[in-house]
Amino acid sequence: MISKAKILFILHLPPPIHGASIVGKYIHDFELVNSCFECKYVNLTIAQSLEDVGKGGIKKLRLFKQKLKEIKDAIKGFKPDWIYITPNSAGGAFYKDYIIVQKCKKWGNGNIIVHFHNKGVKTRENRLVDNFLYKHFFKNVKVILLAKPLYDDIKKYVDLRNVRFCPNGIPDIKTDHTSKSNTSEDIPHILWLTNIMLTKGLKEYLVALHILKKQNVPFIADFVGGITSEISEQQFKDYIHEYDLDDCVIYHGKKYGDDKAAFFNNAAVFVLPSYTEAFPLTILEAMQYGIPVVATNVGGISDAVSNGDNGILIGGKEPIMLNNYRPDPQEISEALKKLLLDNNLRKEMGHNGRRRYEEHFTLKKFEKNFIKAIYHFIQ
Fold first, then answer.
1. DSSP codes joined into one string, 198-252
2. What CATH number did the domain enclosing 30 receive?
């Protein structure tokens, strides 16, 4: 009998709920993954809530030390053939994960697979300390990326031969792929479904909505997502009032399950004008519901949204990797206006998005691609 490879999975699991933790839960629960390999899992998450993400402090340091001990004990007890880790790519979170990866190299046999759910290496590669750390971090590791454009983020440190691409996928749901707001009689709803953060392009989007309102373009803008440390709920409401949007912007807070599905079912357009992204799951959800997408061409989004086919990309033709990009409110408003005033175009792009989701981004497709990527490295 051929023995299975032993893999220690060090990944993020919810709570809190964000893209990396959702995908981590998928991997943890995949029957095929657990049947193909002998698996052990360690939850890499330290933050207790979305508001806690990115914060430091004595408590975080203590939790980090506990996590290192948990990882060390797992390596010594389980003796994995490979260690799979989902680290952060830049900033303070990277420094923490740098220590974890280097410790894993020391405690294990050096066979490391890192799976990035974010980007940011390119934004800091010219800093002396970061450049030094990246050289050591990426030495002798294999890398899984979410989309081909994201290779540009790490190409200074990793040969393409040591990289595999595995786009995320999401569970299929029953939907008629048409939204209530896609009829010409209704006021179309624009759906923002991500955390309330300035770096998601919040202010630029509100300015774009202000432009649309002045042009008498009919719309209702639904905001669904959690408040984070970047901006308080009161500050968010103040911005809405500042841009004269009190009568056409509604903040609904966090929504899950059927409550979240109701917003997708009622949306005519999905918007994500972020400064930076890797490969957001929310765009795949919009495609699944047959909703056209307006998004910035950052990170790997162009692998999901084909400009002019299932949505409109703003910010230029080439994927943007640096974090100094800021979307142009005028460009956002023009893209939204094009879709809001053309019901047939919305339907066509929504249909194309649903088809693209079915072909490339189902959860079953992700599971198969993930296992294929792992096997490529370990065999």
1. GGGTHHHHHHHHHHHHHTT---EEEEES-BBTTB-HHHHHHHHHHTT-TTTEEE-
2. 3.40.50.2000
Q: Which two tokens stand for residue 267?
A: 């949306």
Give, in order, the Cα–Cα distances in Å from 276 to each of 3, 57, 101, 315, 324.
42, 26, 24, 11, 9
In angstroms, the CA 253 to CA 261 distance is: 14
pLDDT digits (tens, 9 = 90+) for 129-173: 999 999 999 999 999 999 999 999 999 999 999 999 999 999 998
Same domain, 49 and 143: yes
Helices (H), the chain: 19-29, 31-36, 58-78, 91-107, 121-124, 128-137, 151-154, 202-214, 233-242, 257-265, 281-288, 329-340, 343-360, 363-378
pLDDT at 374 > cutoff 90:
yes
Instruction: Tokens for 92, please give them.
Output: 């303070």
What's the rounded Cα separation, in Å, for the pair 192 and 189?
10
Do the domain assignments include residue 175?
no
Please report whether residue 174 resides in a domain.
Answer: no
Query: pTM of the prediction?
Result: 0.92
SS3 of residue 165 by DSSP: strand
SS3 category, 138: coil
Q: Are residues 96 and 205 in the same domain?
A: no
End-to-end CA distance of the chain: 17
Residue-wise pLDDT for 45-83, tens only, equals 987 665 555 556 788 899 999 999 999 999 999 999 999
Number of structural domains, the chain?
2
Quote the CA–CA distance of 26 and 171 in Å, as a whole number. 9
Q: Is 184 exposed, middle or buried (0-12, 13-18, 19+ CB in 10 A)?
A: exposed
Please give the pLDDT value at position 3. Answer: 82
* pLDDT higher than 80, residue 1: no
Residues in the chain: 379
What is the residue range of 97's domain?
Answer: 6-169+362-378
